[in-house]
Amino acid sequence: MTDEEAELSIQAVWDVADNELPDELRAAMTEALSVHAVGEARALFERASVEDFLGEEAAAIPLYRRALDAGLHDPFRSQAVIQLASSLRNVGDPSGAIAALKGLDPSDPLSAAAAGFEALALHDDDKPVRALRTALGALAGEVPLYGRALRAYAADLRARPRIRVIAVGVLIHDGHVLAEEYTATAGRPAFLRAPGGGVQPGEAAEAAVRREIAEELGARVTETRLLGVLENIFDNEGTLGHEIAYVFELRSADLEALPRDDRLPVLDGETTVGWYRLDDVSGESPPFYPPGALDLARDRG
Predict the structure, then answer these.
(1) What is the pTM of this model?
(2) pLDDT(104) > 50
């Protein structure tokens, strides 16, 4: 059977796909894949797509991952990344969706579609400004007459002032503290931040810091101890920032194993974390946020 015949056979299954007949759809796809050699990666992708189509995202996610790991080639690789991200968002893991989409080449023909799904995930991850910037950036490429204006307005977007509740973790090990580094911009100097993120409605702060460390760094927190609660009012490049920060002391074998000179990427962002000597972050440069978090750790240490 030729490649063209194989594609026609697979497409014929999708042409009559009915999510009300899940067993029949699975059987038809299994038969189509068995009559010709499409390769392991492609077969995994089609099986994942079937589960996705049937609303079984939890079953689809590991199949998408296996297809990508097996070397799925384009255009199906790009489709798998987007569909994996969509499935992750649908099962309540928007950070995982954002991380998955980071690997897609901006020049990919499906990059605009990927941006749409990324915007949805950013919205679900409580990042509305980034979500709108991403969506407008994708739209700008489709409207030549006003694309430049849309890009400029998107870049100028700022979050509306609000009080945000966050949970962060201070991890000190052998005289070093683990911190997320934000590089300098035209509007502010570089600074360090304790890893963590927003507390979701109905979520305890301790659960939030564990979730955020898992989502952002792929690490498991083994111990937590509440050090205190801080209020942080600040200027974020011309926008008022106001946070109520639950500060936890953390233990994590995964993070403590990170070599001193290595950097760990934040999976759903553009920053990295690494180790900094406590003596080097005791002053004002670079500042460590939330202010007072390190003092709490020292006082309770």
Answers:
(1) 0.78
(2) yes
